[in-house]
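Lab notebook page, bench 4
Experiment: in silico fold of construct C2
Operator: M.H.
Input chain length: 374 residues
Purpose: comparison with the prior construct
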Amino acid sequence: MAEKRKISIRKILQVFVTLVVTTCCVVAMVSASKIEDTKHLTSVAVHIRNDKKYHFVAEHEIMDMAVNNRNIDVVHTPVSKLDIHAMEQVILANPWIANAQVYIDNERVLQMYITQRIPVVRLFQQNGNSCYLDTTLSTMPLSANNIYYTTVVTNVPELKNDSMGWAVKKQIVTLVRHIQADSFWNAQVSQVILDSDFTFELVPTLGDQRILFGDASGMNEKFNNLFVFYKNVLNRIGWDKYETLDVRYKDQVIALPSLPYHGPVDKAVDKMNWINSMVETEAANDAKDSVKAVVAKTNQAVAAKKAAAKQVQKPVIKAKPKADKKHPIAAKKKAGKPDKKKVATPANNNKTKTNDKNKKTGAPKYVYPAKKNQ
């Protein structure tokens, strides 16, 4: 016969005590929760995480959406009657809000944490409307609180929330984010145009060219080819020589000249690449300009030397001799003035001439007799 098991009274007591304690705890918790549910909120706190940089949504707008517009008296409404989930859904209905968290903490404060959407591109649609797109391809209307400056895409059709619309939005955001990531292209590209075949055309800030970009595939190669063309061709030839730049084809940049520019006339040159001929023409013009600059500098140097020589060769002014008061005749001799006693008159000149003739011919001299005294 099997032995009878002894019943331990100690174990029975332990199980009974455990059940009683557990039941008491549950009852206490339920009663405590009922008591808390009957209490009211002390305050409401709204936190917008990225409000220092972006101001698309204000705190009073959050309060209006979650509390005021729903006719909720926060002070007199018990905590148990507040629908936290409904508050979150109402806040998330705002297109400018990306995330919302609403809860009540231990001090019975209604906490609201809001995250705003950050626009990436602004779209100008064909029907005249305008909106923003963010990285999640969500559409946001224009904000009354803030004007956000970003890359612009024009001629956009009305995009629906279907596969075609999502594909076009994805290409737009991908292209714009690539442009914004590069400092050069972010400054150079002022506008993006969406063509009817859903390809892109870039409008540059510097230059009047139409840049046919194609779709968003192979963006790195297209932008690299265009940058090399800017550096090696446009900087040497000029930014006004081309009307259209096409980078849609692989490893190529097709440049169409503008109408005022005429290509080479020589047949031998015409068979060559006309871009090389343009480069040679510009190089020759640069050489001529350098020669003209050298000639102008030499002419300026010669003119400067002549002016300096004229300034050095000044006329020497001789001082007049001072007259000697003690000996006026000697002073006049020093000054170069002839003596009045020795100045020859016309009569004296005739006498000297006759005397010279008499000396030559040996004629006798006539002496006039003196008058007798009466």
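Observations: DSSP finds ten helices and twelve strands in the chain. Residues 193 and 330 are 106 Å apart (CA to CA).
Next step: discuss at group meeting.
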